[in-house]
Protein backbone atom coordinates (compact mmCIF):
# COMPACT_ATOMS: atom_id res chain seq x y z
CA UNK A 1 0.00 0.00 0.00
CA UNK A 2 1.39 3.41 -0.95
CA UNK A 3 1.62 6.29 1.51
CA UNK A 4 2.25 9.36 -0.70
CA UNK A 5 2.42 11.77 2.24
CA UNK A 6 5.35 9.91 3.81
CA UNK A 7 8.58 11.64 2.81
CA UNK A 8 11.42 9.53 1.45
CA UNK A 9 14.53 11.54 0.60
CA UNK A 10 16.02 11.30 -2.87
CA UNK A 11 18.58 8.48 -2.92
CA UNK A 12 20.84 10.51 -5.23
CA UNK A 13 20.81 13.70 -3.19
CA UNK A 14 24.57 13.75 -2.56
CA UNK A 15 25.69 13.28 -6.15
CA UNK A 16 25.70 16.87 -7.41
CA UNK A 17 26.09 19.14 -4.36
CA UNK A 18 29.67 20.16 -3.47
CA UNK A 19 30.51 20.18 0.25
CA UNK A 20 33.19 22.48 1.64
CA UNK A 21 35.07 22.47 4.93
CA UNK A 22 34.27 25.32 7.25
CA UNK A 23 37.70 26.86 7.76
CA UNK A 24 40.14 24.36 9.21
CA UNK A 25 37.44 22.39 11.05
CA UNK A 26 36.04 19.00 10.12
CA UNK A 27 32.57 20.41 9.51
CA UNK A 28 31.50 20.34 5.87
CA UNK A 29 28.67 22.51 4.55
CA UNK A 30 26.87 22.40 1.21
CA UNK A 31 27.93 25.07 -1.26
CA UNK A 32 24.36 26.41 -1.03
CA UNK A 33 22.51 26.71 2.27
CA UNK A 34 18.79 27.43 2.63
CA UNK A 35 17.95 30.28 4.97
CA UNK A 36 14.54 30.71 6.58
CA UNK A 37 14.77 34.46 7.25
CA UNK A 38 11.81 35.16 4.98
CA UNK A 39 9.06 32.91 3.60
CA UNK A 40 8.74 30.55 6.57
CA UNK A 41 6.61 32.55 8.97
CA UNK A 42 2.90 32.23 9.63
CA UNK A 43 2.18 34.50 6.65
CA UNK A 44 3.07 31.68 4.23
CA UNK A 45 1.28 28.33 3.72
CA UNK A 46 2.94 25.55 5.67
CA UNK A 47 2.60 23.17 2.74
CA UNK A 48 4.60 25.52 0.52
CA UNK A 49 7.31 25.69 3.17
CA UNK A 50 7.31 21.93 3.33
CA UNK A 51 7.72 21.58 -0.44
CA UNK A 52 10.66 23.99 -0.44
CA UNK A 53 12.42 22.20 2.41
CA UNK A 54 11.86 18.77 0.85
CA UNK A 55 13.17 19.96 -2.51
CA UNK A 56 16.24 21.48 -0.91
CA UNK A 57 17.14 18.30 0.96
CA UNK A 58 16.48 16.18 -2.14
CA UNK A 59 19.08 18.28 -3.97
CA UNK A 60 21.78 17.87 -1.33
CA UNK A 61 21.11 20.99 0.74
CA UNK A 62 21.85 19.68 4.21
CA UNK A 63 22.21 23.03 5.99
CA UNK A 64 19.16 24.99 7.14
CA UNK A 65 19.74 28.36 8.75
CA UNK A 66 17.32 29.96 11.22
CA UNK A 67 17.27 32.53 14.02
CA UNK A 68 15.15 33.18 17.08
CA UNK A 69 13.33 36.15 15.53
CA UNK A 70 12.59 34.84 12.02
CA UNK A 71 8.93 34.96 11.06
CA UNK A 72 6.61 36.80 11.12
CA UNK A 73 5.74 36.70 13.90
CA UNK A 74 9.06 36.28 15.68
CA UNK A 75 9.78 32.65 16.43
CA UNK A 76 7.29 31.28 13.91
CA UNK A 77 9.91 30.19 11.36
CA UNK A 78 11.50 27.94 13.96
CA UNK A 79 8.11 26.63 15.07
CA UNK A 80 7.08 25.87 11.49
CA UNK A 81 10.44 24.26 10.76
CA UNK A 82 9.96 22.15 13.88
CA UNK A 83 6.60 20.89 12.63
CA UNK A 84 8.05 19.93 9.26
CA UNK A 85 11.13 18.47 10.92
CA UNK A 86 9.00 16.16 13.04
CA UNK A 87 6.82 15.08 10.12
CA UNK A 88 9.42 14.67 7.36
CA UNK A 89 13.01 14.93 8.50
CA UNK A 90 13.23 13.18 11.88
CA UNK A 91 14.82 10.05 10.31
CA UNK A 92 17.44 12.28 8.66
CA UNK A 93 18.46 14.41 11.65
CA UNK A 94 22.05 13.12 11.61
CA UNK A 95 22.36 14.18 7.96
CA UNK A 96 21.33 17.78 8.64
CA UNK A 97 23.11 20.90 9.83
CA UNK A 98 20.59 23.13 11.60
CA UNK A 99 21.64 26.53 12.89
CA UNK A 100 20.05 29.26 14.95
CA UNK A 101 21.11 32.64 16.26
CA UNK A 102 20.37 35.31 18.82
CA UNK A 103 21.43 38.91 19.14
CA UNK A 104 18.91 41.07 17.34
CA UNK A 105 15.63 42.16 18.94
CA UNK A 106 13.38 39.27 19.96
CA UNK A 107 11.13 40.60 22.72
CA UNK A 108 10.51 43.59 24.97
CA UNK A 109 12.42 44.02 28.18
CA UNK A 110 16.13 43.97 29.04
CA UNK A 111 16.66 40.30 28.08
CA UNK A 112 15.41 40.30 24.49
CA UNK A 113 18.39 41.82 22.67
CA UNK A 114 22.17 41.82 22.70
CA UNK A 115 24.91 39.42 23.68
CA UNK A 116 24.49 38.72 27.38
CA UNK A 117 24.79 35.20 28.73
CA UNK A 118 21.19 35.52 29.95
CA UNK A 119 19.84 36.34 26.48
CA UNK A 120 21.92 33.86 24.48
CA UNK A 121 21.32 30.84 26.70
CA UNK A 122 17.61 31.54 27.18
CA UNK A 123 17.20 32.15 23.47
CA UNK A 124 18.94 28.92 22.53
CA UNK A 125 16.71 26.99 24.92
CA UNK A 126 13.60 28.61 23.42
CA UNK A 127 14.79 27.87 19.87
CA UNK A 128 15.38 24.22 20.71
CA UNK A 129 11.89 23.99 22.17
CA UNK A 130 10.27 25.61 19.13
CA UNK A 131 12.10 23.29 16.74
CA UNK A 132 11.71 20.18 18.87
CA UNK A 133 15.45 19.52 18.86
CA UNK A 134 17.93 18.33 21.46
CA UNK A 135 20.70 20.46 19.99
CA UNK A 136 21.55 22.75 17.09
CA UNK A 137 24.59 22.08 14.98
CA UNK A 138 25.65 25.74 14.88
CA UNK A 139 24.63 28.60 17.17
CA UNK A 140 25.61 32.16 16.29
CA UNK A 141 25.80 35.44 18.08
CA UNK A 142 23.76 37.33 15.49
CA UNK A 143 25.33 40.79 15.85
CA UNK A 144 27.88 42.67 17.97
CA UNK A 145 26.58 44.16 21.21
CA UNK A 146 28.28 47.33 22.48
CA UNK A 147 26.72 46.89 25.94
CA UNK A 148 28.09 43.41 26.66
CA UNK A 149 31.79 42.57 27.08
CA UNK A 150 32.93 40.28 24.29
CA UNK A 151 34.34 37.98 26.98
CA UNK A 152 30.83 37.36 28.34
CA UNK A 153 29.36 36.71 24.91
CA UNK A 154 32.05 34.23 23.88
CA UNK A 155 31.87 32.50 27.27
CA UNK A 156 28.14 32.03 26.70
CA UNK A 157 28.83 30.43 23.30
CA UNK A 158 31.39 28.15 24.94
CA UNK A 159 28.79 27.17 27.56
CA UNK A 160 26.25 26.29 24.86
CA UNK A 161 28.71 23.80 23.38
CA UNK A 162 29.83 22.35 26.71
CA UNK A 163 26.23 21.92 27.86
CA UNK A 164 25.28 20.01 24.70
CA UNK A 165 22.99 22.66 23.28
CA UNK A 166 25.20 23.30 20.22
CA UNK A 167 27.96 21.43 18.42
CA UNK A 168 29.64 24.47 16.89
CA UNK A 169 29.44 28.23 17.41
CA UNK A 170 29.99 31.27 15.25
CA UNK A 171 29.37 34.98 14.87
CA UNK A 172 27.60 37.24 12.38
CA UNK A 173 28.34 40.79 11.18
CA UNK A 174 31.46 41.08 13.36
CA UNK A 175 34.23 43.40 12.16
CA UNK A 176 37.67 41.89 11.43
CA UNK A 177 39.08 43.28 14.69
CA UNK A 178 36.21 41.97 16.80
CA UNK A 179 36.41 38.61 15.04
CA UNK A 180 40.06 38.30 16.01
CA UNK A 181 39.33 39.28 19.61
CA UNK A 182 36.44 36.84 19.87
CA UNK A 183 38.42 33.98 18.35
CA UNK A 184 41.34 34.56 20.74
CA UNK A 185 38.99 34.28 23.72
CA UNK A 186 37.21 31.28 22.24
CA UNK A 187 40.51 29.43 21.72
CA UNK A 188 41.56 30.14 25.29
CA UNK A 189 38.26 28.67 26.48
CA UNK A 190 38.75 25.60 24.28
CA UNK A 191 35.81 26.14 21.89
CA UNK A 192 37.12 27.95 18.80
CA UNK A 193 34.64 29.77 16.63
CA UNK A 194 33.84 27.68 13.56
CA UNK A 195 32.24 30.15 11.18
CA UNK A 196 31.37 33.77 10.42
CA UNK A 197 28.13 34.81 8.71
CA UNK A 198 28.49 38.21 7.00
CA UNK A 199 26.44 39.88 4.28
CA UNK A 200 28.16 39.70 0.88
CA UNK A 201 27.08 40.37 -2.67
CA UNK A 202 28.13 42.16 -5.84
CA UNK A 203 26.56 45.30 -4.38
CA UNK A 204 27.98 44.83 -0.85
CA UNK A 205 31.67 43.88 -0.94
CA UNK A 206 32.81 45.02 2.51
CA UNK A 207 34.21 41.65 3.55
CA UNK A 208 36.80 41.68 0.77
CA UNK A 209 38.79 44.47 2.46
CA UNK A 210 39.91 42.44 5.46
CA UNK A 211 37.29 40.07 6.87
CA UNK A 212 37.82 37.21 4.41
CA UNK A 213 41.54 37.17 5.14
CA UNK A 214 40.88 37.42 8.87
CA UNK A 215 38.57 34.41 8.82
CA UNK A 216 41.09 32.40 6.81
CA UNK A 217 43.86 33.31 9.26
CA UNK A 218 41.65 32.40 12.22
CA UNK A 219 40.61 29.03 10.76
CA UNK A 220 36.97 30.07 10.35
CA UNK A 221 34.62 29.35 7.48
CA UNK A 222 32.46 32.03 5.88
CA UNK A 223 28.80 31.62 5.00
CA UNK A 224 27.67 34.62 2.99
CA UNK A 225 24.10 35.83 3.40
CA UNK A 226 22.13 38.13 1.11
CA UNK A 227 24.08 37.03 -1.97
CA UNK A 228 21.19 38.32 -4.09
CA UNK A 229 21.25 41.70 -2.34
CA UNK A 230 17.76 41.00 -0.98
CA UNK A 231 16.46 40.32 -4.45
CA UNK A 232 18.06 43.24 -6.31
CA UNK A 233 20.39 40.83 -8.12
CA UNK A 234 17.56 39.03 -9.87
CA UNK A 235 15.41 39.75 -12.90
CA UNK A 236 12.54 41.03 -10.73
CA UNK A 237 13.33 44.72 -11.14
CA UNK A 238 14.40 44.87 -14.79
CA UNK A 239 11.05 46.34 -15.85
CA UNK A 240 9.80 48.03 -12.68
CA UNK A 241 8.93 47.15 -9.08
CA UNK A 242 6.49 44.23 -8.75
CA UNK A 243 3.97 44.52 -5.92
CA UNK A 244 4.98 41.05 -4.70
CA UNK A 245 8.67 42.02 -4.36
CA UNK A 246 10.29 43.18 -1.12
CA UNK A 247 10.45 46.70 -2.47
CA UNK A 248 6.85 46.54 -3.64
CA UNK A 249 5.76 45.25 -0.24
CA UNK A 250 7.81 47.97 1.53
CA UNK A 251 10.04 45.39 3.22
CA UNK A 252 13.21 47.01 1.91
CA UNK A 253 14.54 50.57 1.73
CA UNK A 254 13.21 52.11 -1.50
CA UNK A 255 16.45 54.09 -1.79
CA UNK A 256 18.35 50.90 -2.54
CA UNK A 257 17.03 50.92 -6.13
CA UNK A 258 18.14 54.15 -7.79
CA UNK A 259 18.87 54.79 -11.46
CA UNK A 260 22.56 53.88 -11.18
CA UNK A 261 21.77 50.61 -9.43
CA UNK A 262 19.11 49.75 -11.98
CA UNK A 263 21.59 50.34 -14.79
CA UNK A 264 24.06 48.02 -13.04
CA UNK A 265 21.40 45.35 -12.61
CA UNK A 266 20.61 45.44 -16.32
CA UNK A 267 24.27 45.31 -17.34
CA UNK A 268 24.97 42.41 -14.98
CA UNK A 269 21.89 40.62 -16.28
CA UNK A 270 23.31 40.89 -19.81
CA UNK A 271 26.59 39.34 -18.64
CA UNK A 272 24.68 36.54 -16.94
CA UNK A 273 22.68 35.77 -20.08
CA UNK A 274 25.89 35.53 -22.10
CA UNK A 275 27.11 32.99 -19.55
CA UNK A 276 23.89 31.00 -19.90
CA UNK A 277 22.77 31.92 -16.39
CA UNK A 278 20.04 33.92 -14.76
CA UNK A 279 21.25 36.99 -12.87
CA UNK A 280 20.44 35.28 -9.57
CA UNK A 281 22.51 32.25 -10.56
CA UNK A 282 25.46 34.42 -11.53
CA UNK A 283 25.23 36.36 -8.27
CA UNK A 284 25.48 33.11 -6.30
CA UNK A 285 28.30 31.79 -8.50
CA UNK A 286 30.14 35.08 -8.01
CA UNK A 287 29.96 34.85 -4.20
CA UNK A 288 31.22 31.25 -4.34
CA UNK A 289 34.18 32.17 -6.56
CA UNK A 290 36.17 33.05 -3.42
CA UNK A 291 37.94 30.09 -1.81
CA UNK A 292 37.30 31.59 1.64
CA UNK A 293 33.52 31.30 1.19
CA UNK A 294 32.26 27.97 2.47
CA UNK A 295 28.62 28.38 1.50
CA UNK A 296 26.19 30.86 -0.04
CA UNK A 297 23.10 31.37 2.10
CA UNK A 298 19.98 31.87 -0.02
CA UNK A 299 16.26 32.24 0.55
CA UNK A 300 13.42 30.85 -1.53
CA UNK A 301 9.73 31.67 -1.74
CA UNK A 302 8.94 28.79 -4.11
CA UNK A 303 10.31 25.51 -5.35
CA UNK A 304 10.88 27.11 -8.75
CA UNK A 305 13.01 29.88 -7.24
CA UNK A 306 15.00 27.37 -5.21
CA UNK A 307 15.75 25.21 -8.23
CA UNK A 308 16.83 28.25 -10.19
CA UNK A 309 19.28 29.20 -7.44
CA UNK A 310 20.65 25.66 -7.23
CA UNK A 311 21.37 25.92 -10.95
CA UNK A 312 24.22 28.28 -10.06
CA UNK A 313 26.29 25.20 -9.30
CA UNK A 314 26.11 24.06 -12.93
CA UNK A 315 27.95 27.05 -14.37
CA UNK A 316 31.48 27.12 -15.73
CA UNK A 317 34.08 29.04 -13.70
CA UNK A 318 34.39 32.74 -14.43
CA UNK A 319 37.02 33.82 -16.91
CA UNK A 320 39.30 36.72 -16.05
CA UNK A 321 37.55 38.75 -18.72
CA UNK A 322 34.12 38.06 -17.21
CA UNK A 323 35.26 39.03 -13.73
CA UNK A 324 36.75 42.25 -15.04
CA UNK A 325 33.51 43.10 -16.81
CA UNK A 326 31.47 42.30 -13.70
CA UNK A 327 33.74 44.50 -11.59
CA UNK A 328 32.69 47.54 -13.62
CA UNK A 329 29.20 47.21 -12.15
CA UNK A 330 29.74 45.19 -8.98
CA UNK A 331 30.52 48.00 -6.56
CA UNK A 332 29.24 48.89 -3.13
CA UNK A 333 25.88 50.62 -3.51
CA UNK A 334 24.99 51.58 0.04
CA UNK A 335 22.76 48.59 0.74
CA UNK A 336 24.62 47.13 3.73
CA UNK A 337 21.91 47.64 6.33
CA UNK A 338 23.95 45.67 8.89
CA UNK A 339 26.89 48.10 8.78
CA UNK A 340 25.70 49.92 11.88
CA UNK A 341 25.75 46.72 13.91
CA UNK A 342 29.23 45.84 12.65
CA UNK A 343 30.59 49.27 13.58
CA UNK A 344 28.85 49.41 16.97
CA UNK A 345 31.75 47.71 18.75
Rg, Cα atoms, Å: 19 Å
In helices, the fraction of residues equals 25-40%
* Bulk shape: globular
User: How many DSSP H or I helices?
Assistant: 11
Q: Give the CA-CA distance, first to last residue.
A: 60 Å
List SSEs in N-to-C order.
EEEHEHEHEHEHEHEHHEHHH
Strand order of the largest sheet: 3-4-5-6-7-8-9-10
| Biggest sheet architecture | 8 strands, parallel, barrel
Structural class: alpha/beta
Mean pLDDT: 95
Q: Would you count the extended β strands for me?
A: 10
Unreliable segments of 5+ consecutive residues: none
Tell me the strand percentage band: 5-15%
Q: What do you see in this structure?
A:
With 345 residues, this protein is α/β, with parallel strands linked by helices. The protein starts with 18 loop residues before the first strand and ends with a helix. It has an 8-stranded parallel beta barrel with strand order 3-4-5-6-7-8-9-10, surrounded by 5 helices. It has helices at residues 46-58, 76-89, 117-131, 150-162, 176-189, 211-217, 259-274, 279-288, 303-310, 320-327, 339-342; strands at residues 19-21, 28-30, 32-35, 63-65, 97-102, 136-141, 166-172, 195-197, 221-225, 293-298. The chain has 11 helices and 10 strands. Helices cover 35% and strands 13% of the residues. Strand 7, helix 5 and strand 8 form a beta-alpha-beta unit.
